[in-house]
Amino acid sequence: MSTSIDTLITSTSDTALKTIAEKVKQQIRITDEEGIILFERASLPFAGALANFIRERLHGDTTYFNRNFHIEPTNVCVFSCKFCSYSRLYAKKEEGWELSIDQMLDIVKTYDGKPITEVHIVGGVHPKMNMDYFIELMQKIKAHRPDLHVKAFTAVELDYMFRKAKLSVEEGMKRLHDAGLDSLPGGGAEIFAPEIREQICADKVDGEGWLKIHETAHQLGMHTNATMLYGHIEKYKHRIDHMRRLRELQDKTGGFNTFIPLKFRNQDNDMSYVTESTITEDMRLYAIARIYLDNFPHLKAYWPMLGRENAQLSLSFGVNDIDGTIDDSTKIYSMAGSEEQTPAMSTAQLVTLIKQVKRKPVERDTLYNVVKDYSLDAAAAIPDAQLN
Ligand code: V47
Ligand code: SF4
User: Fold this and answer.
1) Tell me, what's the pLDDT at 334?
2) Model pTM greater than 0.85?
3) Which atom of ligand 2 is nearest to the CA of 85?
4) pLDDT tens figures, 271-286
5) Whose CA is nearest to atom 27 of ligand 1?
6) Residue 320 exposed, middle or buried by CB count within 10 Å (0-12, 13-18, 19+)
7) What are the residue ranges of helices labelled H in the chain?
8) What's the pLDDT score for residue 95?
9) Which of 68, 84, 229, 347 is 20 to 30 A distant from 20 in Cα terms?
10) What pLDDT score was predicted for residue 178?
11) Domains in the chain, please, with CATH?
12) Residue 275 Cα, ligand 2 centroid: separation in angstroms?
């Protein structure tokens, strides 16, 4: 491993890139300016080699996935993010859906007896689905299946819920945690920089508010994820600014598990005029995120959005997690033009996907405890002959 990074260092004539490679080798944090230099000047193979070096130093070939299912309580939303294919639906409520607590509990019950470890609950921000509603939902899920990890609500949903209930972030978060909320997903972060946020999602919680909610969750001992919506109107400096704020909070709390870059998809939303990023840009972004975010243990590629083959590719650009065996059609992506219109993959398919690129598939729970190592389990993968 060290030979290849040494070769990279000696063969690079750009002195700034050489310094960055030296820092990576010696586990020294890169600066914001160096992050920008990577975006501006690093070739895909250069950034990829550094990111892969870090990935293998942290995790070897291990590639995590989990068994989860999604519930989207509603697609009605009071906000109007320009990139979102839901955003019209508050005006056109007849096109929306709202699930009752019993309907959501029925979804949970369809997984009875199945080895699922997590339910991921996120949706639009419905004015009538308030704190009491979600507290009851948490309590009923836990009463039915206490061991199921509940990862729910973006900071956007939480901010709205707390403000409506006239609760401080600390009090609101504590009540939900006591009711059964285990961790937070990373959504709603988008791009923190106000000059971009004002143009793409002006009316929802701002960057400071998002970070405060995650910090409060961390203080209660909860783990959370962080996302970044990239590839629209943001510049490199906004990506670095976004990741700097996350890196600083992580230094303070250590509560983030995973960073999840989300590629902007342009179908059927108010930003359809924006050309989507190329796969090369996507892979460079993953690689630079892995290099810059030195205190994030995990980097996740969300395969329903990226597509299966690109998710495989990302495993050579710093990614060590490809989310889960999502059994539900997650409409926020399919409506925005994601690669996977029916995003469901069986465990055998996920294991195969990871093995095909010579990595080691390991099923994890939400907190990255190992559930099962599939690398030695030949029966778990789909034989290559059946893939052709
Ligand atoms: O915040 C909305 C994104 C996010 C589009 O924590 C779009 O494990 C691309 O955060 N193009 C919500 N992205 C989903 C999310 C998430 C997903 C998977 C795993 C986890 C996790 C979290 O979806 C929103 C927004 O950034 N989004 N519209 C679009 N057109
Ligand atoms: Fe609502 Fe979330 Fe869509 Fe924004 S991204 S409009 S908050 S569902």
Assistant:
1) 55
2) yes
3) 3
4) 999 999 999 999 999 9
5) 84
6) buried
7) 2-11, 15-25, 32-41, 44-59, 101-109, 131-144, 155-164, 169-179, 194-200, 207-219, 236-253, 279-292, 303-306, 308-314, 331-334, 347-356
8) 73
9) 229
10) 98
11) 2-59 (no CATH), 64-386 (3.20.20.70)
12) 20
